[in-house]
Amino acid sequence: MERWASSAAFRKKVRFLMICVAGQGLAATYSKEYRLKNVLNGYIERENDMPRFGQLGCQGFVVFDQAGNMTLPATSPFLDIEERAFGDVEFQLNTLLSGKDVGLLEPGRRVQLTRLVKAKQLNGKAGTVLEFDSKDRRYRVQIDGYQKSHGIQHVNIIPLRQSSQVSKKRKATGCGPGGCSMPKPSQCSMDDGKCSSSGGCSKTEASSRTITCPSVGVKAMDDEHEECFSALKQLQGSRKLDALEKAKETIAAHFAHEEKLFKETGFDDGGKFSKTKSHCQDHRKILAEIDAEMNRCSNSGGSTVSEDFISSLAFRLSDHTKQYDTQYSSHMQKHFKQ
């Protein structure tokens, strides 16, 4: 959000607002960590003041026009479509700024359909823009596998990058209850996986960022974090598929135990502002990334795990701990002291 808010395209035209539903402390943490200068950062003190449309953040952004009317309840979730979610935000904002009678997508542009209500079966389908009809304010889209073209509103379209524009996929992503960060993957080497407040990895001269594994103040969780990083250390040494499988088992067991504790300690109320929704989704995403690497190794006929993937996975777990696990720290500490 800070990048958008400080960009020439949006700086004087769009107001970016970040509202934390988990109190002033987390809002202050995000303000410092993400160096927010152009984003209006705030928080909600009382439960009665919570917005009625639920928690967003990595689930998408809500968009209002200049008159304060909600034009889009939620942009596409980052946790579902990754970088395409950022393109969705930019396209929707640019459409509002340019006027709905203006077609911003040129004929031939590849797009993906989303947020359709009456034709849900088309959500996720890809197609090609044929033209923009200014009368009904819709794009004519030739959907792959369909003979007839369809008229699609801009809010139901996600532009896909052209093949020449595709950049390397970001290998590490941090999404917390209030938003997403896109740091570069670290190239640092791991130590013995010991978790501490000062971190679980040593930074090499070539590293761009230290991989750390902060303590969450809950012994059971800290011990399991140590086990996860120890498994990654073994994987780093062997780069064998069976070591990755073992690392996945260790990580999956930790995630399952953590989610069990959420319910047992009452950390997850199950409501629309559930503290664990994005947290658990990130668990699934990390495991899916491991599965993808395992499939790649199997399909390539070899069993060597990519060094980049190991570094990326270590960073993902570290960032997950910082963004999510630290949020339950005080709650569980109080619970286990009782």
Automatic annotation (TrEMBL):
It comes from the Eukaryota. Residues 1-27 form the signal peptide. The keyword Signal applies. The keyword tRNA processing does not apply. Belongs to the hemerythrin family. Keywords: Iron, Metal-binding, Signal. This is Hemerythrin-like domain-containing protein. GO terms for molecular function: metal ion binding. The lineage of its organism: Eukaryota, Sar, Rhizaria, Cercozoa, Chlorarachniophyceae. InterPro entries: Hemerythrin, Hemerythrin-like_sf, Hemerythrin_metal-bd. It comes from Lotharella globosa.
